[in-house]
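Hello Y.,

Per our agreement to keep a running log of every chain we model this quarter, I'm adding this entry. I've kept the format consistent with earlier entries: sequence first, then predicted structure.
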Amino acid sequence: MALEVGDIVVYNKTGTVGRVAKLVKLDSKVWVELDSTGLLYDENLLDKADASKLKKKKDELESEKRAMEPKESLEKNMKDEGVLDSSANICGAG
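Predicted structure for the entry above:
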């Protein structure tokens, strides 16, 4: 299978999807750099994919990114309880 720069491919071992950014030939073997990771993959372990697979993967990444962001509703429900009372001489050790 001859890949070209710009082709959309999937690395089936991990499900990594990306666009071919560069083809590198080292020791008579062709390696493919993906734009999504910047890593090199053995050309023989990649399969061509269609644009819908790339869009689906980008949508999944966006969903994960949004899920990791702090929720505004939690911040709105928080209230300041004032200053901590540290007047007691308690060390808390044992």
